[in-house]
Amino acid sequence: MIQIENLTKRYGSFTAVDDITFTARPGRVTGFLGPNGAGKSTAMRMLVGLTVPSSGSALVLGRPYRSLPTPARHVGVMLDAAAQHAGRTGRETLVLAAAMAGMPRHAVDRALERVGLTSREAERRVGNYSLGMRQRLGLAGALIGEPQVLVLDEPANGLDPAGIRWMRGLLRDFADQGGTVLLSSHLLHEVEQVAHDIVMIGGGRIVAEGTQEELLAGHGQTVVGTPEGERARLAAELRGAGHQVDLRGEDLVTNATRAQVARIALTAGVPVTHLAESSAGRLEEMFLQLTADQARQERTEEVSA
Amino acid sequence: MSATSELTRPGAPGTGATAYLPQIEDVPALSFTRLVGVELRKLVDTRTGRWLLITILLLTAAVMAVTLWIGRQDGTGLFALLTAANIPQAVLLPVLGVITAANEWSQRTALVTFTQEPRRLRVMGAKTVAVVLLGLAILLVTVLLAVVAHVVSMTRAGGEVDLWHGWSLVVGAVVLQTLGVLMGVAFGTLLLNVPLGIVLYFLTPTVASVLVVTTSWLREHAAWFELGTAQLPLIGDGWMTGEQWAQLGTTSALWIGLPLAIGCWRVARREVK
């Protein structure tokens, strides 16, 4: 269980994390979603006591992280897979992690096995690891104390598709066994694949929050495909019938139901190449909006700098 | 219940077979001894750390060899061997101290270490104890080497073997070694950057010495704030006077205590990224 309440971090006049409140529950994977620079990492650092919040609180297992007697035994944390000493072997990195978590030495082999690093790979120096291997090693370090909470910042970075799939399974299993998982990502698709609950953050603020089903529901939107020449005519017909119509890529998006669209198209004699309930809902729209805002802001800053 | 599940640890304390995971209260806090053990391990488990230790021991042996060669006619005294051995060690052991204190910030492993143990000053304490222990272990090896060298040299030259120079020298050597390592730790902690720490460790006392030599009032009272002057009596004949201990105290407070205190304050407050 992770409880974050009114957590805020200000750097001078810049507010990196702005009064966020949410709970990550046991038995569920909570996806912390937001574009780069949205404040996800700052929030996670505050959660584990690496950054002092300007105000608000963060509790892990009912207490501030810093007051856990042996935190690594209860909470597995991976904030940056690159933050490992390049001159140590993978195994040595885990031997140290096991000691810090108060675990016996054989926990190292178990953790290696769990993340799929072979013993030959474990004998190599971390400096020679690919980013994917470092992610696995970092995850092994987080899992070594057999914790009940996992806090992972962008864990899928650098993993190949098979690795991402494997990670998804591992996190789902962890949650199925009652563990709490909080993971961050800047990719909507990645979060969609694994998270039960989603907390979306942009510009330091929470902009959407809820279960995956709630947030990804189509909200009655219908996506219609027509040949290019016919698109404007169908849009006009739909608007004429009192529906809203937007253009999204090659498709029309409308709040009319599929049946309504079919009837209007038939009457107007417009061919329809596909007709579907929108799978991308409010969340994707908001996420794209956030990302676009962020990009625009960065451009402005670059220009003014 | 889920007795076969991967995360269930049968026989976990507290709640019996159905226990999911240990209660926070059931897990003992990370002990300081264990922390020191981890920090000692970190000193020798990388190539850099190992080579630094090997270099220290090789240079010590080389310097002793030179001393033996110079005194080959009449045999070499134990004291001469130890003084010689102190030359490379006085330079390199503080470097080990700087590295211990600052390396995690340069390597970014601070992110991991201070997550595993959020009580940061405990970690710094463990690092300090670990590197002092290592420094004293090196001193012990050095003394053993020097004893062997001395005995061999005297046997060959037909001189008298003299192994005991009194407790004052033992205490002096231990204090000198400890202070050297601690000063490295202090500069490393102050700057939290290995290259910068090493450079300033060497530069600052040199600049201070120049200042002392060129200013007459400072020159007269040098022993109160100049390290080299205050530490010299440690390996002199017999016990130091009370005033000399006081001078050692003030210089140590200035050169070790002050940077260490400021450094600890920085470590405790700094955002780890």
UniProtKB/TrEMBL annotation, chain A:
Location of the ABC transporter domain: 2-228
InterPro entries (alphabetical): AAA+_ATPase, ABC_transporter-like_ATP-bd, ABC_transporter-like_CS, P-loop_NTPase
Signal sequence coordinates: none
UniProt keyword S-adenosyl-L-methionine, yes or no: no
GO molecular function: ATP binding; ATP hydrolysis activity
SMART domains in the cross-refs: AAA (SM00382)
Gene3D superfamilies on file: P-loop containing nucleotide triphosphate hydrolases (3.40.50.300)
Keyword annotations of the record: ATP-binding, Nucleotide-binding, Transport
Record has tRNA processing as a keyword: no
Family matches, as SUPFAM superfamilies: P-loop containing nucleoside triphosphate hydrolases (SSF52540)
Assigned protein family: Belongs to the ABC transporter superfamily.
Official protein name in the record: ABC transporter
Organism: Ornithinimicrobium tianjinense
Automatic annotation (TrEMBL), chain B:
Keyword set, alphabetical order: Membrane, Transmembrane, Transmembrane helix
Protein name: ABC-2 family transporter protein
Keyword Transmembrane helix found: yes
Transmembrane segments: 51-71, 77-99, 129-152, 164-191, 198-218, 245-268
Keyword Cell membrane: no
Organism listed in the record: Ornithinimicrobium tianjinense
